[in-house]
Amino acid sequence: MTESHSRVAIVTGAGRGIGAAVARKLAADGFAVGLLDLDETGVTKGAEAIVAEGGKAIGVGLDVSKTDQVESAVAKVAEKLGPPTVLVNNAGITRDNLIFKMTDEDWDSVLSVHLRGSFLMTRAVQQHMTAQKWGRIVNLSSTSALGNRGQVNYSAAKAGMQGFTKTLAIELGRFGVTANAIAPGFIETDMTAATAERLGVPFEDFKKAAAAQIPVNRVGKPEDIANTVSFLVSEGAGFVSGQVIYVAGGPKD
Ligand code: NAP
């Protein structure tokens, strides 16, 4: 099929973990990729590695919760790589605590990165998608959206991502833009390593205990999420929109 739209993707939080794997996979799928992250050095190296393998990529430092930084990062990607038609809202943080110990800052920072960040990024990118009459938005939710002890802030943000996604699907569908959410279960990254550390459990033991509860009997890898993103942004996924796909090695409610 000949495509009339540009093949340019933006991945936030692409400095490491799931975002880095998604950026590599989309580059392998033939997208030029803008890797965005707080850590400019990390994404610059990630982009250089993609270019060394024959792909097209740039790294841009930003805080996704800051309007001016989001707008200038999206403009930079559009200028250097072309108008973005794929957006993966992946940047995320955790500030876990039981509600009686959770601070205002724990609450505000988590809601700000996940929800405000995804809103700002999507508002800035959708104009390129609607102009091209084609787009794919993938938002990172989590199984924690269903409730998770110590994560009242994070679970609220990740449940919010699901409502945000469904509304984007309704508003943008007429412009050829789909929006879907991926809700990962346990994925082996720095984020889950930090949770193990907070609980005082060696990461290997933490992973083993998690795997024992997962029907496929293993924890997830960043590539498990990258492969699902690859499908959702493909031409063939054009009739899949407003969905939440649990990628957790088994069913979730
Ligand atoms: P990670 O290893 O902690 O990576 C998160 C990335 O986001 C880091 O590179 C971080 O930058 C970046 N980031 C944080 N705040 C940012 C901001 N304000 N602006 C720009 N970039 C920012 O996390 P991960 O495990 O790969 O998780 C990726 C996404 O999947 C998150 O949305 C997470 O909630 C979701 N998720 C993960 C799991 C899991 O089991 N790992 C499960 C469900 C959902 P720095 O390196 O500079 O801090």
TrEMBL record:
Q: Transmembrane residues, as ranges?
A: none
Is-annotated flag, keyword Oxidoreductase? yes
Q: Where is the Ketoreductase domain?
A: 7-185
Q: What is its EC number?
A: 1.1.1.100
Gene Ontology terms, MF aspect: 3-oxoacyl-[acyl-carrier-protein] reductase (NADPH) activity
Q: What class of enzyme is it?
A: oxidoreductase
| PROSITE patterns, per the entry | ADH_SHORT
Name the SMART domains for this protein. Answer: PKS_KR
Name the UniProt key words of this record, in alphabetical order. Oxidoreductase
Record's PANTHER family? 3-OXOACYL-(ACYL-CARRIER-PROTEIN) REDUCTASE, 3-OXOACYL-[ACYL-CARRIER-PROTEIN] REDUCTASE FABG
Question: Which family, according to the similarity comment?
Answer: Belongs to the short-chain dehydrogenases/reductases (SDR) family.
The name under which this protein is listed is: 3-oxoacyl-ACP reductase FabG
